[in-house]
Amino acid sequence: MIDESGLDPTAAPRRPDPDTAAAPTGTRGRSREPIIRVRGLVNRFGDQVVHEDLDLDVHRGEILGVVGGSGTGKSVLMRSILGLRTPQAGEIEVLGIDARSDDIESRRCIERSTGVLFQDGALFSSLTVGENVQVPLREHHRELADSLRYELALLKVKLAGLPADALDKLPSQLSGGMRKRAGLARALALDPPLLFLDEPTAGLDPIGAAAFDRLIRTLQQALGLTVFLITHDLDTLYAICDRVAVLADRRVVANAPIAEIEALDHPWVREYFHGPRARAAQVAKASWDDGQ
Ligand SMILES: Nc1ncnc2c1ncn2[C@@H]1O[C@H](COP(=O)(O)OP(=O)(O)OP(=O)(O)O)[C@@H](O)[C@H]1O
């Protein structure tokens, strides 16, 4: 059952909130309300255990950075939350809906509520950018007239910071950064409250990456989005993430604002957050704040 807030009022927490020690409050419309709730997640591939008893909360209105070494299961976690992979065990709720449910209406509701930018953009190469953005509109809003669908696609393309003439181009005619923006436009097609980004700045030059970070923050604030952002990019973490979830040892070992993460006594965290690249990102963050 879903109430007006989009949450299931009957859902009783089976396990405690895993990150009460790390409660951000108040700013930018963030709240303690979990919009995504994962408990006891288990993912295995044959003998390989990727997640074991993993818990995670993502709060409404925040940008959560998800980090961890290569192969720690960030993408598998995202795919599990989106219902694209069936885990071996665990509970996953998205907007109060059981993401593991086979119920078609539940599945479609989660699909309508989530926009996803996959690492490679995942655009259809034979369709123009405009046609790509219209794909989810065609699937979920068959009632829309072609002209309105076109106008909506144009609006999303502009929101993603692309010029109007990008609408009629094929993905192969765009730069890597523009393809990311086209993928973002498609992710925003249905006005989802939840945005999933898998390494959005990978492959971009530093200026393009910083511009993409600013775009994500601006859109998140303007549209009130909640963002689940997988990244290896320290600049992104420092510049725009409200909290950071660290995947290690097959689970989320911490989920907190970056200042608290930096202070953790964990070998991967020490290496990642206290190396020269982290120091450079802290300096960049200071100049970002000055420019705000
Ligand atoms: N379909 C699959 N079949 C078998 N193993 C898989 C499959 N998908 C993922 N894995 C394994 O699960 C582990 C976690 O993969 P995942 O892609 O989630 O890692 P990641 O943290 O996103 O890594 P990276 O930072 O390198 O992108 C890896 O060891 C990967 O090989």
Automatic annotation (TrEMBL):
Transmembrane segments: none
Record-level Gene Ontology MF annotations: ATP binding; ATP hydrolysis activity
Residue intervals of the ABC transporter domain: 36-274
Xref: CDD domains: ABC_Org_Solvent_Resistant (cd03261)
Pfam family, one: ABC_tran
Keyword tags: ATP-binding, Nucleotide-binding, Transport
Database matches in PANTHER family: PROTEIN TRIGALACTOSYLDIACYLGLYCEROL 3, CHLOROPLASTIC
Gene3D superfamilies found in the cross-reference section: P-loop containing nucleotide triphosphate hydrolases
Low complexity: bias regions: 8-28
InterPro entries tied to this protein: AAA+_ATPase, ABC_transporter-like_ATP-bd, ABC_transporter-like_CS, P-loop_NTPase
Protein name: ABC transporter ATP-binding protein
Annotated region described as Disordered, given as residue ranges: 1-32
